[in-house]
């Protein structure tokens, strides 16, 4: 079997950890915004610290991303799609960082406590301003829908590479025997 | 690349693999749409409740969707220390927390006339120095009228005015009450409650059950009541006027402080926590957790209570939700109301800055 150039193990671990968290977060968010059931409170209490965890991991991941050279995209990919692949990753990083910040900022502007776990809470990052709260609350929804759309495109593209094109793109992000460093 | 896809399709299982590429994201998208409730128009959401309030009281942009007519107050809360064995929340210790509050009438009409029998509410934001704040909205009725969000929605719609008469349809209310003896009973208790002359000498109840959690992690079900130190008097004969309840409150605060004692009712095993229509036995232990002192009134226009939501699930460490389903529903619905009104232009409130300046004269 020919060798495949993989992402470093740190990048792969961060990728799959965050993929799980972000997908969970999108479903939690869209459900809690559309329920009045008893689970609402539990989900909101989970949503805040999970969002902050995603923000921290995204920053670690962004820093980590500058420490290695990503495996090159296969030459079989047309330039337009290579551009789309790179651009979609920039958008993914931007949304992973912006979405938790908008959530945090929105609670700050609405004078909500930004409660984490065990009674700890974060300070506000924006001034108290209810019009700003409303704007950020709407933006939070639209960024969520955008992030979900990009995640779906990412998933579709990954499956196309892995199942149909069967090039080196999909295995560069998976865990297989012998693709350590 | 298209050539690669075409080549793949000619291989064994190629079509199936391409189908997975399309179907997997489509399945995730479908799950997302279902989770968001876009396929279930009958699901109860915060938007449902906005529609319910609209059906009863019409459209009032900029105002709270319920308890729309109100006035801001402020002062402080002095913890007595007596509730510390029950809850580790800092504000129950012997310390002072700043308070922003709001008195209001139940209902979505911001200009409704005051009347002795209308439900009055007190909303509070307690801000201890450690930042672990506590918000609540409490009412001068003995029990809540319904057990859960679905019943609240149905009951609200049953009381909506019918086109033509402009009055609720008694048959519709009757049909709801036949199905809900707990609401019938709660309405009986509500009608039998002793009315007082105003906001200042009224008693306000949490109605919902919460858990107090102490330093050892022990949880105790509780409900609580704000008991006035002002002399309780029945409504004065012939009292009335569009804003007489609010004017009396402004007069009282112009003359001096108003005080309430926070009496915590300690639940015992078997006391219903999940059913806010069911009263707890009268002989339950009561703990005097501290004193609320209000010193100042302000109009909603420019006042500190307008741009916040009195979300009953903004709780300090040491106070937690119970299995009572109503606070979660209120939290979700208040959040929606807060977002909508924060985006709208609000006409002046009924209780104007000028009315507050004149001390309710």
User: What is the CA-based Rg of chain A, rounded?
Assistant: 19 Å
Distance between the termini of chain A: 17 Å
Helical content of chain A stands at 55-70%
* Total DSSP helices of chain B: 9
Q: How many structural domains in the coordinates of chain A?
A: 1
Transmembrane segments (chain A): 12-34, 46-63, 90-112, 142-165
Family (chain A): Belongs to the cytochrome b561 family.
Cofactor (chain A): heme b
Domain Cytochrome b561 bacterial/Ni-hydrogenase (chain A): 7-174
Q: How would you explain this protein's 3D organization?
A:
- Chain B: Its EC number is 1.11.1.-.
- Chain B: It comes from Acetobacter nitrogenifigens DSM 23921 = NBRC 105050.
- The complex is a heterodimer of chains A (181) and B (361).
- Chain A is 65% helix and 2% strand.
- With 181 residues, chain A is mostly helical.
- The model of chain A has no long low-confidence stretch (mean pLDDT 93).
- In chain B, strands 1, 2, 3, 4, 5, 6, 7, 8, 9 and 10 form a 10-stranded antiparallel sheet that branches.
- Chain B has helices at residues 2-10, 14-35, 46-57, 149-158, 170-179, 181-192, 244-255, 326-342, 353-357, and strands spanning 69-79, 96-105, 120-127, 134-139, 204-205, 210-213, 219-228, 258-266, 286-298, 319-321.
- Chain B is α+β, with helices and mostly antiparallel strands.
- Chains A and B meet through helix 1, helix 2 and helix 4 of A and helix 1, helix 2, helix 3 and helix 8 of B.
Produce a short descriptive summary.
With 181 residues, chain A is an all-alpha fold.
Can you tag this structure with a few keywords?
heterodimer, A: about 180 residues, mainly alpha, B: alpha+beta, Catalase HpII,  Chain A, domain 1, 9 helices
Question: Secondary-structure map with pairings?
Answer:
The complex is a heterodimer of chains A (181) and B (361).
Chain A: H1 9-32, H2 39-65, H3 79-109, E1 114-115, E2 121-122, H4 130-165
Antiparallel strand pairs in A: 1-2
Chain B: H1 2-10, H2 14-35, H3 46-57, E1 69-79, E2 96-105, E3 120-127, E4 134-139, H4 149-158, H5 170-179, H6 181-192, E5 204-205, E6 210-213, E7 219-228, H7 244-255, E8 258-266, E9 286-298, E10 319-321, H8 326-342, H9 353-357
Antiparallel strand pairs in B: 1-2, 1-9, 2-3, 3-4, 5-7, 6-7, 6-10, 7-8, 8-9
């Amino acid at each position: 079997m020919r060798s495949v150039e993989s992402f470093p193990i740190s990048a792969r671990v961060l990728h799959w950890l965050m993929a799980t968290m972000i997908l969970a977060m999108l479903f939690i968010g869209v459900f809690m915004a559309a329920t009045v059931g008893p689970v609402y409170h539990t989900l909101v209490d989970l949503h805040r610290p999970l969002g902050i965890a995603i923000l921290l991991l995204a920053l670690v991941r962004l820093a980590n991303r500058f420490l290695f050279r990503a495996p090159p995209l296969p030459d079989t990919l047309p330039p337009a799609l290579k551009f789309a692949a790179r651009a979609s990753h920039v958008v993914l990083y931007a949304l992973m960082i912006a979405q938790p910040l908008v959530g945090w900022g929105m609670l700050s502007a609405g004078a909500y406590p930004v409660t984490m776990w065990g009674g700890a809470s974060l300070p506000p990052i924006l001034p108290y301003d209810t019009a700003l709260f409303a704007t950020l609350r709407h933006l939070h929804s639209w960024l969520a829908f955008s992030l979900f759309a990009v995640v779906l495109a990412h998933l579709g593209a990954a499956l196309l590479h892995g199942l149909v094109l069967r090039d080196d793109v999909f295995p560069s992000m998976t865990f297989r025997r012998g693709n350590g460093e | 690349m298209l050539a690669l896809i075409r080549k793949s399709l000619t291989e064994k299982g190629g079509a199936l693999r391409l189908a997975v590429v399309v179907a997997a994201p489509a399945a995730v998208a479908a799950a997302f749409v279902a989770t968001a409730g876009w396929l279930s128009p009958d699901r109860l959401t915060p938007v449902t409740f906005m529609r319910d309030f609209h059906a009863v009281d019409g459209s009032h942009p900029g105002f709270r969707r319920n308890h729309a007519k109100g006035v801001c107050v402020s002062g402080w809360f002095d913890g007595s220390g007596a509730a510390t064995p029950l809850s580790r929340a800092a504000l129950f210790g012997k310390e002072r927390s700043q308070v922003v509050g709001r008195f209001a009438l139940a209902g979505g009409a911001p200009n409704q006339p005051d009347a002795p029998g209308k439900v009055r509410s007190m909303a509070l934001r307690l801000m201890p120095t450690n930042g672990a704040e506590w918000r609540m909205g409490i009412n001068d009725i003995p029990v809540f009228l319904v057990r859960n969000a679905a019943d609240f929605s149905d009951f609200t719609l049953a009381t909506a005015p019918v086109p033509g008469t402009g009055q609720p349809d008694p048959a519709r209310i009757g049909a709801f009450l036949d199905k809900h003896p707990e609401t019938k009973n709660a309405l009986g208790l509500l009608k039998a409650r002793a009315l007082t002359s105003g906001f200042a000498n009224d008693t306000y109840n949490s109605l919902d059950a919460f858990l107090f959690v102490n330093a050892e992690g022990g949880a105790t079900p509780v409900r609580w009541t704000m008991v006035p130190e002002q002399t309780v008097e029945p409504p004065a004969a012939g009292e009335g006027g569009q804003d007489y309840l609010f004017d009396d409150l402004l007069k009282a605060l112009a003359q001096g402080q108003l005080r309430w004692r926070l009496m915590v009712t300690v639940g015992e095993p078997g006391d219903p926590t999940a059913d806010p229509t069911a009263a707890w036995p009268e002989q339950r232990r009561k703990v005097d957790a501290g004193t609320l002192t209000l010193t100042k009134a302000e109009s909603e226009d420019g006042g500190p209570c307008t741009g916040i939501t009195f979300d009953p699930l903004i709780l300090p460490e040491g106070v937690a939700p119970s299995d009572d389903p109503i606070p979660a529903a209120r939290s979700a619905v208040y959040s929606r109301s807060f977002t909508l009104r924060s985006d709208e232009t609000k006409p002046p409130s009924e209780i104007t800055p000028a009315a507050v300046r004149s001390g309710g004269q």
